[in-house]
Structures are given as C-alpha cells and as structure tokens.
C-alpha cells in the first residue's frame, strides 16, 4: 500500500541545512495611529506588487522556496498521485434551451485543461462543442455560459488570470461568430436572459469614471442589455445609499418575473420581483434582516428564509400579496439550506451535522419521504449567490437531477425517479481511488468554553491508531459557509499517500444555522480560533497523531484561521500552509473587495472592534519569544478577494522577528486568482507543491512511483 516512509526529523521539520532568505528592507517610519495607539507597518512597501523592489524580493523568496520543494524526495510520486486524483471526466446535468430535445452541457474529458460548453441537438445526437476555452490562452477562463431560451445564442463570461472580473461576450451558436455586443460595466456576473431572447439581465459594477476613484469595485447593480440595441444597458436594480451591497438575478420558470437579489455580503439580502410585462418592481423581502431564496410556483411564491428561524424554514405567499408569508415547512433541528420545486413536489436539502440530507414534501408542505443519497456527502455548493441547490428540475416536469460528491467520490450526477424511489447513476467518474478502502468518521469534541464541535476524519480503513499518523487539519469558520464533505484532488492524493484528513466544523461557518455563524462574527471571532486549536489538541489526545506530524491548512478566511491559531498556540502544530489569506486585520477594508467584509470581521475604525482586531491580527502579533512552526504563505498574485500582498508582509516580518521558529516560505501563485490556476495542469502543479511542503515539513518520504 502507498504510505509515507522514513521518520520525521528530530526537531520536527527537516532543518539539516540552514536556509538563506533574502532580507526585506524594514522601514521604521512606516505605520499609523489608530484609536490613540501606534501600529508600525515596516513592510507596507511590499503592498506595491508591481514595484521593481517588491518583484525582485519576491522572486528571490520564491527561488528559495522552490529549491526546497523541488528537492523533496519522492516528488515524482506526489505528482503521480496528484495527477491521477485530478484527471477525471466531468459532465453536468443537461441545460434545456431551444426546441424540444436541445440541451447544453458542461463537459471535460480526463485530460482536458478546462471545462467545455457543449450542445446536443436531441437524444442520441453527438455532442457539439460550443465554447472550448482549451483553445484560448492558458490564463483565460470560461467563468459562466448561459444559453438563450431559444438556444440560438450563448452569453458567456471570460476572465483573465482567475475567475473574477469576467467580461460578457455573446456567441451565435449556429455560425460560431461573436456578436458585437459589449455590455457596460465591469466584473460581469449572474446573467439571466429575457424569455424572448431579446437581451439579458446581469450584475456588474459601474464603468470607470462613473464613480469616485477607489469605488470601482462597488455600487454593484443589475443591468439590462438589449442585443444589437447600440445603446448602453440600463440600470434596473441596485442601491443608491450603500455602495457595498452586491446583486444577482434569476428568471422564474414561468418566465413572468426576474427575481432580483441585493446582498449584504452573506449575512442578509433583500428580494424583489421585476414583472417583465411592465417592468414593475414588486417587493418580497425589503429589509436586510435575513437570508432568503425565492421561487415562483404558479400563483404563489416559495420563500426559503432564516427570518425568525435561525436554522431555516419554508414560507409561501400569494403573488397578489408577496410580503404576507405563511410557514409551509417549519424550522427543525437540521439547517434548511435550499428548497427546489420539481414535478409538483418540494425537494428540501438540509445540513444534518454538516452533511446533506434530502427530504421530499408535497406542495402543501406535508413530508413524503427522504431521498437516500449514495453515501455521507454533499449535494449543494457555495457560490457567489449563496448556497446553490444540487437538486435541479422544473415544476412542470418530473425529471429530477441530483448532484453529489463526498471526500472520496468526485462530483457526480444522478437521476431520481419519484415513482420508483430510485436514484440512478448518470455520470459517476473514477479518480483512481477505491472508496471502500476509506472511512469517514464524525467525532465531537469540546472547545475551550465547553461548546461541542463536530469534526470529520477521513483515512484508510486499516489505519493503525498508534498516535503517529500524518494528519492534515483544515478549517474555515466564517461567512456562513459550511465545511461539508467535498471532493478535492489534493485531499485524495494525501489519502492515497497514507495521510489523514481532519475537518472541524468550527463556529463562524453555516453548518448549524445563523446562530452558529454569528457565534464567531466580529468581537466573537475568538470562538472560531478556540474551536480550531481544540481540534488539534483533541487529535493528539485521542491518539491519532503528535503535534510534529500535524499540518494545519487553510484557504482564504481559512488562511486567516490557521495563521491566527499558529500565532496563538504554535506548539499545537508541526507546520502551517496558509493560502490566499487575510493577515493584516487593521488594513483589510482598504482592499476594495473587502470593504464590505466589516459586517463579518468588524471595522478597524470602531474603537471596540478595532481593538479586538488588533488583538488577533497575525501581522500585528508576531512575538520574538515564540517558536512558531514551519509556515508556507501562498498568495495568489491576481487575487481580487483577499489582499495578495498580506502574505508578503507576514513572511517578511516573521523572517525578521520570529527567528526562534520557522522557516517561513513564500510561494506565490502566478497567473492565479483566489481559486488557483485556470488550467488543470496549473492546479496539479500547485497541489504537487503543497504536498511537497507537507512531506518536507513532516520529514516524510513518499515511496517511488
């Protein structure tokens, strides 16, 4: 069996020879006063990523990092496992558009670098390529593609160097030619066609020059673009008072309404209907008090909400009185994430102890049965428009499509037949892993304040419980995002190499409803950090591992989580992999896309919240008397979600001040956005580097391929 060989170095990470990192210039005069206290910021000059001095220093840092990672014994075996885990066929449920039988699909073969958008003109007809981003430059990504209702055109978003800041283009399906239409605004997203295919609605930020400098990423709104009109798209929905809100749009199945959403990050939203017959705005949920999803069913509205129900409930309202809600499915012990009306029935997806359950209800809310899933796993997914249901279909049709994945099963598609209560595989790809050889356990442990927290553990079925396993601990804990069983090639490669995966559902996430999320917002953020540190200590106390064999890994808000906990309890971790994080919590609002994140973290400008942020901000809490674990800071240089310069500043400070521990590496992701590279090859190479860091830090050598 594959497994790690060798033993960890005596002092934890391999330190047989000292590493020479290039010193960063320290500016002792750089800093600012906040609420009467001076905060030095000696590496603020690194925020100028394009400056020659920054580029030179970053390149020298990267050279040291890559010299170490490329010399890791067994790197070839790591590449083999990372490649096999990532190279699997992908296929979406059909997207009907146009004449009966015409369907579009997302599809990729195991060797395709990027997903393609395909067309099938009827059952049994060959697949035709509509959009193939594999023929584009490697840095270009196909972010979304939406066929017009008549199937004649596809509006799609293309982005460069990541998956944000997309630009809409329109393709004529029959001729393969691009239309000259160029919708106004920047950062195009959330597109929905008018039912007559004359144009589409979409979300965007204003054109440069339409807003004051620094506000270019704000004042998001819904616009309508008419094909061939030759005039600017008209703004139909947004907010004129609060610049941080962002918007999304859908078209109702009945084609009578556009459903318009205005979001306060992921904390609350307002919902309106745009009646397409006369463009009248009809309010459904005016106040930013809750999270709501709305579906039009006949003469009624289905409103899935957490208003007065922290774990969610389903309401119904007549279209004649859309603000008069009546509970249809009351709040229960599990967290209601989505409800989809299909074939006259309601398919409700719940988070049950951080994995998904699907319950089927009649139109009047009466419970009918559970839809049994293949294993413990996930149906829904998190996107920019909140939680998106993995149950697809139409109210007027009985065909039900179910998306599913687990820690050991790649994204798959099933068909569900209600009459026979049968779930049938439609597309279940393989990734070189026998799921039967692995187990997913859920354990519960106590946090510092006595709160019980759940955690998933994934490992080989025959793994010895000898206290010496290599464990990768990973968490998130923020923005109402649930950490649920999801497939990732990196994780599967780690399992095949004999590693253990641990995923604690720390407070701040959405696993257990609004109260669980709010328990780690603003001045309660320490709860998430305490939960995560308690998870690391439980793994040691329960006999799975030792601190020197435990890698802590986090991405985005999870990157902040692993950095803070390493600063607060460095002895609990053997190594830390901190990817695309926020690390300077006193300056994050100045990064354009994060100014509205004060609703989650609190504001540095507030005296109480600012002091709290300063108390845990990793960049401001490096101590010279602490021995920090080996750490890799991984900025995505095209990141538009988290400041790509924060990891540079953090590494510079640790290398200068945290000299008792380390080492501290910088591994920049070039031509990558917040989600990583735009090609399969780039993503695999990033996984190989990450696995190499794990092996180097824990002192393990994988077997030869």
From TrEMBL:
The keyword Lipoprotein does not apply. Residues 1-26 are annotated as: Disordered. PROSITE patterns: PRO_ENDOPEP_SER. Gene3D superfamilies: alpha/beta hydrolase, Prolyl oligopeptidase, N-terminal domain. One of its GO terms (cellular component) is cytosol. GO terms for biological process: proteolysis. Its EC number is 3.4.21.26. It catalyses: Hydrolysis of Pro-|-Xaa >> Ala-|-Xaa in oligopeptides. The keyword Hydrolase applies. Residues 22-427 form the Peptidase S9A N-terminal domain. It is an enzyme of class 3 (hydrolase). Residues 490-698 form the Peptidase S9 prolyl oligopeptidase catalytic domain. Residues 12-26 have a biased composition (Basic and acidic residues). GO terms for molecular function: oligopeptidase activity; serine-type endopeptidase activity. Keywords: Hydrolase, Protease, Serine protease. Signal peptide: none annotated. Belongs to the peptidase S9A family. This is prolyl oligopeptidase.
């Amino acid at each position: 069996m594959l497994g790690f060989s060798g033993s960890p170095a005596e002092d934890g990470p391999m330190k047989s020879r000292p590493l020479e990192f290039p010193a960063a210039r320290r500016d002792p005069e750089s800093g600012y006063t906040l609420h009467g206290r001076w905060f030095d910021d000696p590496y603020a000059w690194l925020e100028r990523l394009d400056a020659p001095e920054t580029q030179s220093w970053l390149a020298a840092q990267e050279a040291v990092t890559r010299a170490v990672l490329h010399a890791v014994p067994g790197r070839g075996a790591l590449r083999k496992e990372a490649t096999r885990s990532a190279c699997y066929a992908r296929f979406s449920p059909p997207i009907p558009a146009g004449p009966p039988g015409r369907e579009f699909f997302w599809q990729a073969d195991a060797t395709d670098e990027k997903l393609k958008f395909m067309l099938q003109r009827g059952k049994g007809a060959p697949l035709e390529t509509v959009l193939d981003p594999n023929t584009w430059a490697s840095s270009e990504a196909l972010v979304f593609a939406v066929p017009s209702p008549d199937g004649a055109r596809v509006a799609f978003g293309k982005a460069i160097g990541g998956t944000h800041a997309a630009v809409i283009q329109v393709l004529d399906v029959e001729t393969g030619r691009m239309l000259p239409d160029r919708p106004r605004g920047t950062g195009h997203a959330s597109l929905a066609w008018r039912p007559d295919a004359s144009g589409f609605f979409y979300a965007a930020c204003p054109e440069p020059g339409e807003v004051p400098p620094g506000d270019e990423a704000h004042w998001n709104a819904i616009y309508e673009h008419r094909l061939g009109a030759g005039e600017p798209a008209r703004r139909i929905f947004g907010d004129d008072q609060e610049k941080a809100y962002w918007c999304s749009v859908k078209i109702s199945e009945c084609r009578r309404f556009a459903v318009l959403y205005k979001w306060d990050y992921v904390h609350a939203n307002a919902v309106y209907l745009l009646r397409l017959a006369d463009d009248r705005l009809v309010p459904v949920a005016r106040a930013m008090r809750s999270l709501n999803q709305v579906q039009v069913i006949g003469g009624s509205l289905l409103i899935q909400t957490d208003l007065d129900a922290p774990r969610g409930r389903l309401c119904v309202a007549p279209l004649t009185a859309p603000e008069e809600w009546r509970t249809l499915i009351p709040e229960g012990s599990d967290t209601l994430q989505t409800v989809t009306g299909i074939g006259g029935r309601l398919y409700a997806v719940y988070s049950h102890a951080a994995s998904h359950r699907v319950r089927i209800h009649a139109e009047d809310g009466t419970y009918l049965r559970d839809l049994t899933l293949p294993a413990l796993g996930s149906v829904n997914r998190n996107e920019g428009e909140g939680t998106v249901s993995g149950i697809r279909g139409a109210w007027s049709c009985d065909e039900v499509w179910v998306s599913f994945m687990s820690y050991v099963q790649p994204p798959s598609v099933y068909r569900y037949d209600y009459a026979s209560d049968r779930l049938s595989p439609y597309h279940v790809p393989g990734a070189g892993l026998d799921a039967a050889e692995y187990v997913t356990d859920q354990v519960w442990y106590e946090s510092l304040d006595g709160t019980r927290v759940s955690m998933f553990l994934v490992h080989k079925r025959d793994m010895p419980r000898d206290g010496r396993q290599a464990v990768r601990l990973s968490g998130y804990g923020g923005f109402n995002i649930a950490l649920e069983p999801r497939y990732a090639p990196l994780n599967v490669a780690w399992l095949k190499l004999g590693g253990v995966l641990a995923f604690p559902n720390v407070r701040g996430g959405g696993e257990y409803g609004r109260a669980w999320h709010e328990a780690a917002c603003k001045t309660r953020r320490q709860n998430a950090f305490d939960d995560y540190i308690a998870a690391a200590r439980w793994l040691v106390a329960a006999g799975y591992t030792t601190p020197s064999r435990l890698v802590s890994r986090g991405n985005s808000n999870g990157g902040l989580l692993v950095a803070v906990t390493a600063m607060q309890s460095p002895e609990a971790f053997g190594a830390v992999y901190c990817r695309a994080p926020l690390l300077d919590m006193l300056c994050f609002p100045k990064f354009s896309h994060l100014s509205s994140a004060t609703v989650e973290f609190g504001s540095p400008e507030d005296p109480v919240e600012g002091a709290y942020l300063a108390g845990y901000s990793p960049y401001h809490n490096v101590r010279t008397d602490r021995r920090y674990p080996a750490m890799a800071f991984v900025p995505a240089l095209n990141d538009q979600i988290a400041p790509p310069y924060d990891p540079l500043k953090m590494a510079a400070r640790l290398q200068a001040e945290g000299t008792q521990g380390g080492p501290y590496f910088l591994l920049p992701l070039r031509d990558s956005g917040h989600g990583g590279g735009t090609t399969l090859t780039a993503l695999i190479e990033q996984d190989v580097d990450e696995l190499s860091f794990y092996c180097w830090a824990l002192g393990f050598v994988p077997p030869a391929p």
